[in-house]
């Protein structure tokens, strides 16, 4: 990592971030340790494993993990590597298995609570009685499992660190803005599902460019002008999104999360038609709008356009409505995953209209996202040189103009255009990289109590 | 069309013997590839039926006994699932000159081969629907050193009417699980 300390690499208060954190191999190895083996990471959605024994192979950092629903209905997350000699146990993207048997020497592992005490425990070893003379302690040689796993409204999160705070503390009041994406459009809690199939693709950029982009970089919209000109909006109209109220850059400075969206509001106003070309879709959105007004009444509510949960998960909260995760591969390459969210109980026509819109917007074939990847790869490539990597990126827009959001403890607003959200993201990154304890990392954490659904 | 690459049987005698149809289908696909490689996108759009479906499903690693799930289904996520409107929008976006993933323009060569005519059925409008399977190898070169290779299988339903050929549906099966290029900004 050269000779600079983390505090020299990230001078968040001045709005300076060294380019080397986007290209340096040693810093990358340190990130895997300090960030990815400690933080809460998004590993998937429950709708990817609807039935007992269903599994989905995911990633945490650079490691392959198995996300599975055991026969008792619990979600488990285990390292996809045999405890014996390390072979990848599961070589499929998804499927349904009661046990995972290693192709190398045949060790098998189970999550079934009737067979084993701990998920991932070793159940079968060829030659256990004969070659091992019954002396191998199977209980000691189960799969490495995550220390904590949480199913939050269908989104599955896990951490390798037993000392990590509960997920809801880690999320803090960012929860309100994540809820706005995960909740049913009618205002009831949860109820989303992922449209079948996860897009996965390789991008030759540092993984941090993507969450930075989603945390609150509204002014990069200039690079999407070509799609704004063409117009791919959900109603078939102008622009590329549904109409939205003025967006603000909102962040949780103590936690590293942030978003573009609306400040708390208490009443939504009349429904604005936007799907004129699709009467059934229009009828549905009108109906859920009216239902939401009845469900929430005059309660506080928020709206998210795009947001990032530190370190590597981002989401779109309205239309398009998607989950994205940015898996590190190396200092200069990431694997990007996208999943597309709809209300589980929406009519097929609504799901189909949403699906077509999401696919023309996002993903490598998306007319919007294709230009994002161009920016991130170009910036990575142009920061690799011995000269360029010594320079700093400029994040100085709006330093010192954050205002607290009175209704949401721990939340700050920075107007529409600012680099504050990126500054708090990289400050959080530096705190993890400096190896701060969880007590230090969570010192400023606050959260509101969950609203009774 | 119900026939898909993963389910249709392959028999030695299953392709249509009519040499003239095979020759015309091949000539049409080669002409289409030439239009794309020479960036004549408006002329290419003119080859598409108003009701075209243009889909590239995701390719997944699944157990041999579950190969029916290798490609994502019709109502699942995909790399592309388009109709005529969005294909026209894509061309319009390229032409803005500020669609940076295609600016400066890619250098693209489509190699289209292994062309087989599987089926010819009469069309409601008095023409014929010609079911054609082919392979593609597409080379894309961008900027200084960016190279992407796309290899896979295509299944097309072409319409032949009054000597004119159009594309009614195209299903593209890319031989890649994790997409190894950062964006898909070319036509297949």
UniProtKB/TrEMBL annotation, chain A:
Top-rank taxon: Bacteria
Keyword Transport: no
Swiss-Prot/TrEMBL keywords: 2Fe-2S, Aromatic hydrocarbons catabolism, Dioxygenase, Iron, Iron-sulfur, Metal-binding, NAD, Oxidoreductase
Domain called Rieske: residue spans: 40-121
PROSITE patterns for the chain: RIESKE, RING_HYDROXYL_ALPHA
Record InterPro entries: ARHD_Rieske_2Fe_2S (IPR015881), RHO_NdoB-like_C (IPR043266), Rieske_2Fe-2S (IPR017941), Rieske_2Fe-2S_sf (IPR036922), Ring_hydroxy_dOase_asu_C_dom (IPR015879), Rng_hydr_dOase-A (IPR001663)
UniProt record similarity statement: Belongs to the bacterial ring-hydroxylating dioxygenase alpha subunit family.
Name of the protein this chain belongs to: Rieske 2Fe-2S domain-containing protein
Organism: Achromobacter seleniivolatilans
UniProtKB/TrEMBL annotation, chain B:
CDD domains reported for this sequence: ring_hydroxylating_dioxygenases_beta
Record's keyword annotation contains Oxidoreductase: yes
UniProt xrefs under InterPro entries: NTF2-like_dom_sf (IPR032710), Rng_hydr_dOase-bsu (IPR000391)
Top-rank taxon, per record: Bacteria
Keywords annotated in UniProt: Dioxygenase, Oxidoreductase
GO molecular function: 3-phenylpropionate dioxygenase activity
Pfam family, one: Ring_hydroxyl_B
Record EC number: 1.14.12.19
UniProt record similarity statement: Belongs to the bacterial ring-hydroxylating dioxygenase beta subunit family.
Entry protein name: 3-phenylpropionate/cinnamic acid dioxygenase subunit beta
Gene source species: Achromobacter seleniivolatilans
